[in-house]
Amino acid sequence: xxxxxxxxxxxxxxxxxxxxxxxxxxxxxxxxxxxxxxxxxxxxxxxxxxxxxxxxxxxxxxxxxxxxxxxxxxxxxx
Length: 78
Description:
The chain is mainly α. The protein has helices spanning 5-15, 19-26, 30-37, 45-58; strands at 2-3, 66-67. Helix 2 (19-26) crosses helix 3 (30-37). It is globular, with a radius of gyration of 13 Å.
């Protein structure tokens, strides 16, 4: 599972949120958010929990902000 970076960055842009503001809204350290948004680190349980709460609070669809698997075909979808 990974973060949909494009969708997340678009949300931040649309809402006028900085990375620091997103970190506060997710109740996470800025350095963690910084690394996630630069694809230097994957998301963990704390990030996902914060994102779920944020989506619920803001009326957003959590599933739009995560990618469950690679876009490649798996043997189950062939």
